[in-house]
Design a protein that fits this description.
By secondary structure, the protein is an all-alpha fold. It is built from one helix and no strands. The mean pLDDT is 84. Keywords: Cytoplasm.
Length: 66
């Protein structure tokens, strides 16, 4: 009995997924928005740290003559 050379499917070869161009463009646009948001968040954290550090810094006391 001979099974022949027919292979019903290949093992270990994932099927290449076709992504429509519109989906790819939407993804790239959303990814760009996310990058901008992360950059804004980093700047905000940096500004908040500066503000907090300034608030916690010792303030010069006015000199009063008695």
């Amino acid at each position: 009995r001979s099974w022949g050379c027919r292979i019903p499917f290949k093992i270990g070869q994932p099927k290449k997924q076709i992504v429509p161009k519109t989906v790819e463009r939407d993804f790239e646009r959303e990814y760009g928005k996310l990058q901008q948001l992360e950059e804004q968040t980093r700047r905000l954290q940096k500004d908040m740290k500066k503000s907090t550090d300034a608030d916690l810094a010792p303030k010069p006391q006015p000199v009063t003559d008695v």
